[in-house]
Specification:
By secondary structure, the chain is α+β, with helices and mostly antiparallel strands. Helices cover about 40% and strands about 15% of the residues. The chain has 2 domains: about 5-80, Phosphorylase Kinase, domain 1, CATH 3.30.200.20; about 85-325 and about 355-433, Transferase(Phosphotransferase), domain 1 (Orthogonal Bundle), CATH 1.10.510. The chain is globular and about 60 Å long. The chain starts with a strand and ends in an 8-residue tail after the last strand.
Length: about 425
C-alpha cells in the first residue's frame, strides 16, 4: 500500500470505496477498489473471487487488472484508470441532446466485444449497466466492476441466485427462474436503449410498476430517425424468452457492427475474430433451414396451427409459461454440488422435468399486491437511497422466498433505489454467489 498515494475518492458504495491512486514507482494513475473483508472465511473467499475473475479477463474492452493485495482487513484491487468517466455520466451530461448513431454503434460494438469475451469464458457479469461501462480519453470503452460476476460450472449451466441492478435485470430474474448469459444480453439492450433515448427503457414511479413493465417487456419505441438496425437490435435483445435473444456473437455478426470491429481490435486478432463470426452466421443459417424444413413437412392445417401456437407463445412472457415444479428425481453428487454453488446443469443428460401446469406467477401476485414497502430506514429513503459506506455495514442481502415477501421488502421504497446493486439468495439451497 505504501507504493500508492491516494489522490481522491472516485466513488463509494456498500462494498467499500474506489480510489484514484498514484503509483510512485511506475509514475502512473490507477483505480483502486477497497473492499472490507467479512469475518467469515467463506465470505473472504467470495470477496477474492472478483480479483481472480478480473485477472483472467485480458481484453482491450475490459478494465485491465494490475494487482491485488490485502491489508488492515481490506482487499485492494488495483485496476486500469479510465480517465473519461462512465457511460451513465455521459448520458446525463447530454441534457436531452441525442447521441449520433455512429457514436452509439462505436460504443456498442466495444461493449459487445467485451461481453462476448467473458461469455466465451463461461462468466456471467450479472451487473451490466451504464454506470459499469467506462471510457478513456482515446475513445476506448471498457466493461468493469466484476463484483457480481459468476463463473458457470458448465456451458449448459444456469445460475439461480439473484444478483443485479433492478432497472437492468431481465424478466426471468423477477420470475425466480434459472438464467444464463442471455440475462447479460437483456442488460446490454437496456444500455443501448439509454444511448438512443437518454432514458431507461422501463419507466415507472413505483417498484410494482417497474417490475410489471420489465416482466411484460413494455417500452416505448426508439426515435424514428435511428436506423432499422438499431430498432431491430433493441427488439431482439428485449425478447422476453431468453432463448429468443441473440448471443453476443450473433449481435456482432450483424453487418452494421462487423464492419466496425476492425477499429476496435488489434490487427493480429481481427482475422481470427472475423472467421468466428462467419462460422456463427453459417451455423445459424443451417439451424434456420432445418427449422424451416421441419415446419414445411406438415399439412397446411398443421402449419397454420403451428404458427398460431408460436404466435401465442411469443406473446406470453416466460413468467406465464410453465414453471419448474419438481427437481430431478435422482441426482449425482456433482449435480447437488453444482446447485449449492448457484448453478443448475440443464444439459440433455440431466434435463429437469417440467410439470404440465401453470403455477402462480409473479405477475399474478403483483397485480393484486398493495403498494410496495421497504426494509430501508427512513434516513436511507430521505437521502435518496444512497447507502454510505462504513466499517460495520455489509452489503444489503435479501432472502429469496416468495414474490409476496419481496414485495413486502419494497413497500414505500423510492424507485431510485432500483439503480443500486443487490443480491438475493436462498441460504438453505445456495451459497449466494
Amino acid at each position: 500500500m505504501e507504493e500508492y498515494k491516494v489522490l481522491k475518492v472516485l466513488g463509494e458504495g456498500s462494498f467499500g470505496r474506489v480510489l484514484l491512486v498514484h503509483h510512485g514507482i511506475g509514475d502512473q494513475k490507477y483505480a483502486m477498489k477497497e473492499i472490507r473483508l467479512p469475518m467469515s472465511s467463506s465470505g473472504i473467499e467470495n470477496s477474492r473471487k472478483e480479483a481472480d475473475l478480473l485477472a483472467k479477463m485480458k481484453h482491450p474492452n475490459i478494465v485491465a487488472y494490475k494487482e491485488s493485495f490485502e491489508a488492515d482487513g481490506h482487499l485492494y484491487i488495483v485496476m486500469e484508470y479510465c480517465d473519461d468517466g462512465d457511460l451513465m455520466q455521459k448520458i446525463k451530461h447530454r441534457r436531452g441532446n441525442l447521441f449520433p448513431e455512429d457514436m452509439i454503434l462505436h460504443w456498442f460494438v466495444q461493449m459487445c466485444l467485451a461481453v462476448k469475451h467473458i461469455h466465451d469464458k463461461r462468466v456471467l457479469h450479472r451487473d451490466i449497466k451504464s454506470k459499469n461501462i467506462f471510457l478513456t480519453q482515446n475513445g476506448k470503452v471498457k466493461l468493469g466492476d466484476f463484483g457480481s460476476a459468476h463463473l458457470l460450472a458448465h456451458p449448459m449451466s444456469f445460475a439461480c441466485t439473484y444478483v443485479g441492478t433492478p432497472y437492468y435485470v431481465p424478466p426471468e430474474i423477477w420470475e425466480s427462474m434459472p438464467y444464463n448469459n442471455k440475462s447479460d444480453i437483456w442488460s446490454l439492450g437496456c444500455i443501448l436503449y439509454e444511448l438512443c433515448t437518454l432514458k431507461h427503457p422501463f419507466q415507472a414511479n413505483s417498484w410494482k410498476h417497474l417490475i410489471l413493465q420489465i416482466c411484460k417487456g413494455s417500452y416505448n419505441p426508439l426515435p424514428s430517425h435511428y436506423s432499422y438496425e438499431l430498432h431491430y437490435l433493441i427488439k431482439q435483445m428485449f425478447k422476453r424468452n431468453p432463448q429468443d435473444r441473440p448471443s453476443a456473437s450473433t449481435i456482432l455478426s450483424r453487418g452494421c457492427l462487423t464492419k466496425l470491429i476492425k477499429n476496435c481490435l488489434p490487427s493480429e486478432v481481427i482475422k481470427e475474430f472475423e472467421q468466428v463470426l462467419k462460422d456463427t452466421k453459417k451455423h445459424e443459417g443451417s439451424a434456420a433451414r432445418r427449422k424451416g424444413s421441419v415446419m414445411a413437412g406438415g399439412s397446411s392445417n398443421n402449419r397454420k396451427e403451428n404458427r398460431r401456437r408460436e404466435d401465442e407463445s411469443s406473446n406470453r412472457s416466460p413468467l406465464e409459461r410453465k414453471n419448474i415444479t419438481e427437481g430431478l428425481s435422482e441426482g449425482t453428487k456433482e449435480q447437488r454440488k453444482s446447485e449449492q454453488e448457484g448453478d443448475i446443469d440443464l444439459s440433455p443428460v440431466h434435463r429437469r422435468q417440467w410439470e404440465e401446469r401453470i403455477s402462480n406467477t409473479v405477475l399474478d401476485v403483483l397485480e393484486n399486491a398493495s403498494l410496495l414497502s421497504s426494509s430501508f430506514t427512513p434516513e436511507e429513503t430521505e437521502s435518496g437511497g444512497v447507502i454510505n459506506y462504513c466499517e460495520k455495514k455489509p452489503r444489503k442481502q435479501w432472502n429469496k422466498e416468495t414474490p409476496r415477501t419481496l414485495m413486502n421488502i419494497l413497500t414505500n421504497a423510492d424507485v431510485s433505489l432500483a439503480f443500486k446493486t443487490y443480491t438475493i439468495y436462498k441460504p438453505a439451497l445456495y451459497d449466494g454467489l
